[in-house]
Design brief:
With 304 residues, the chain is an alpha+beta fold. It contains 14 helices and 10 strands. Helices cover 46% and strands 12% of the residues. It binds glutamic acid. Glutamic acid binds next to loops.
Length: 304
């Protein structure tokens, strides 16, 4: 497959002028990002790297980090996880409070904010030094010791994270949060502030395309069975209330973040990351969705 040729075509066919969207502004630090950025990196199991545009520029991965914290929590507590979080698509915005109230503080899935906050609570309980240990886990997966949090983004979100504070307090009232809410929120904001390039993101998510093992070192991070389950959750819940649309248009498991990144994987084939900070009304990168739709259309392969 001529992946570089296909990526070149995608870059050429996509005209930034056709995408309105807005850079996320509810986290003031993210509002500073240039909306015209666009980059893509594809990493194949045959160890090929293909890219274009701003693929080597760091951006805030935001909700994409929820897949990584889920992987670590799943490893730490196993199926106990599912006593506290469900695995159903929410059909609601990522930061919605409504369902939590009538579903007794049990989040619909681990990839919306409420579910990710319960995962953060689990990590705060089980890790000695949560921020440091989680970062070490991400660096181990990526085989890259330079990956780091973005302090300014974490502090900016902490200052304005009123909805996340509301979510965690509501869950605490139902008994679904064990630790002090302030401590859990602090961990969550740092987790979301992880900064990566498209290349680093594609490298990080390679484990989900490679049955839970890293490609570089062959180290097993997650069991194949748990990898299957996490991929299934990405497929059904990875795009807020647009998971159906992403599945329909792209046909790969993936996860988006309000920093404008999207990562997707084709099991046993590749992982791919795309970044375009302007978001559609559902909070997903408009240009990112189109780029990935073109990728599976032009290659003629998706998981379906
Ligand atoms: N840190 C963001 C929040 O909690 C993540 C949202 C996202 O990327 O979907 O609002």
């Amino acid at each position: 497959m001529n992946y570089q040729g296909i990526l070149n075509e995608i870059e050429k066919e996509i005209d930034l002028k056709n995408f309105d969207g807005k850079v996320a502004s509810y986290i003031p630090e993210l509002a500073k990002v240039n909306g015209e950025k666009f980059g893509m990196h594809l990493y194949t199991l045959k160890n090929g790297h293909y890219s274009f545009g701003d693929s080597n520029e760091k951006f805030s991965i935001q909700s994409i980090s929820k897949v990584l914290s889920l992987a670590l929590a799943f490893d730490l507590v196993g199926n106990e996880l599912w006593d506290r979080i469900d695995v159903e698509p929410s059909g609601d915005p990522f930061n919605s409070l409504a369902q939590l109230e009538y579903e007794n503080g049990i989040p619909r899935n681990p990839l919306i904010n409420s579910g990710a906050l319960v995962i953060s609570d689990i990590l705060v309980t089980h890790l000695k030094n949560p921020k440091k240990d989680f970062l070490a886990f991400v660096r181990q997966i990526t085989n890259n010791p330079t990956i780091n949090y973005d302090d300014a983004v974490a502090k900016s979100e902490k200052k304005w994270g009123f909805r996340n504070a509301a979510l965690i307090n509501l869950m605490k009232s139902f008994g679904n949060i064990e630790n002090k809410t302030k401590k859990v929120l602090d961990f969550y904001f740092y987790q979301c502030s992880l900064s990566m390039t498209c290349k680093e993101l594609a490298e990080t998510f390679m484990i989900f395309a490679n049955r839970g093992a890293t490609l570089e070192t062959g180290e097993r991070i997650i069991t194949p069975s748990r990898t299957k389950r996490i991929n299934a959750i990405m497929q059904t819940c990875g795009f807020y209330d647009e998971a159906g649309e992403f599945t329909f248009r792209v046909g790969l498991p993936g996860k988006s973040g309000v920093g404008g990144g999207i990562v997707a994987i084709h099991p046993n084939e590749y992982s791919v990351a795309v970044w375009g900070p302007k978001l559609n009304p559902k909070g997903n990168s408009a240009i990112g969705m189109t780029a990935l739709e073109l990728l599976t259309t032009k290659t003629g392969y998706s998981i379906f």
